[in-house]
Amino acid sequence: MNWLKSTLSYTVGTAEPEYGPEAIHPVTAQPEPYSVLTKDDLKWKAMQSTNVETQIFYLISPANEVASVQIIYNNVAGLMVTCQLNVKIWNHNGKEHLWNSDPLENHCFTEDMNTLFADNLSFALNADGDAYEIKSARNEEALIDIVVKRTAPGFQVGKDGTTLYGTDRANPWGEMRHRFWARAAVTGTIRTPGKEYNFGSEGNVGRGVFIHAIQGMKPHHAAARWNFVTFQTPSYSALMMEFTTPPSYASTRVNVGGVVNDTEILYAGGNNVVTYPETKEDPDTQWTEPISAEYTWQSKDGQFSATLKGPLGERRDRVDVLHHIPGVIKSLVGGVVGTKPYIYQFADVPNDSLILTVKDGDKTVEEKGVVFAEATFIS
């Protein structure tokens, strides 16, 4: 009966019934705190059922310019597949953000599923599995020639980075998966008609974060809220991704993240917490916009902890998701009562108010850095 209810809600777009906590199997409950990514872990899954799969790169230039480059692979009920390239540069030319969202024609994968090609675009993973070369001439507004090479090992929480949805764990009806490179060196450029952005060169590299994620079900069924932060300091990179399920899955919080330095993973796991001590109601959306934040990471044995807290700074953007996304993806959430997705984005570079405190054994270090944070409200 639960399977039938879930299938009907996927098909006709209705809200799901309340299945209870037995229908959610968080990755944070797996016995392994984390596992190191291999090249095989970075393969595109390209599921044949309803899902959204994405690879996204957050880029910070030596001049503290912030951009993101993202591929979204989307399948609607196994009936239609689309592929989209999203490019954003915050405070483009000191004014409004540059935002491009372009459909990709003739997309395909290499046999090993590690590289995606489309007309005038390639997202290519190298033979060693430690660097992506991103080239795009899809839109003259943003010509991309970037290399992102991880420094610390990549990781996923648990053995596979995956939270399962469904009352039968052996036959789940949905999944959520995240895999991370928390610290990477960036070289190359994004050229716009008015400016060329240099995101790094040999001897003066930029900083990057890479995330490979899958929502193997309708987005508004998988999560009602999201929180994300990456904080880059001279010595450390801290990253956290949290989602809260709708009441249909007992409003369960799943938080994954880690802290790395230039060469190693200092901590990765699910023993993390994010809170917003100060908030305000946004009169335009009625969502509660964060003003300050506190993020904590802590190993279960207490030997490692990290805290990032302070004002988030001026909001850089408020994204009306249904306004920006393609119509075919919009169909995944359209018509559902209570679904009103907005993303609040913060990108202070550098942010002198936020301080990362890292305690590793008997050693304590405090550093300022560059923050990119999001608070997402869906339903």
Automatic annotation (TrEMBL):
Annotated keywords: Cytoplasm
Annotated family: Belongs to the SVF1 family.
Cytoplasm found in the keyword field: yes
Pfam families: Svf1 (PF08622), Svf1_C (PF17187)
Residue ranges annotated for the Svf1-like N-terminal domain, each copy included: 52-215
Organism: Aspergillus pseudoustus
Keyword Cytoplasm among record annotations: yes
Cited InterPro entries: Ceramide-binding_SVF1, Svf1-like_C, Svf1-like_N
Svf1-like C-terminal domain ranges (all copies): 217-379
Domain of life: Eukaryota
Protein name: Oxidative stress survival, Svf1-like protein
Subcellular location: Cytoplasm
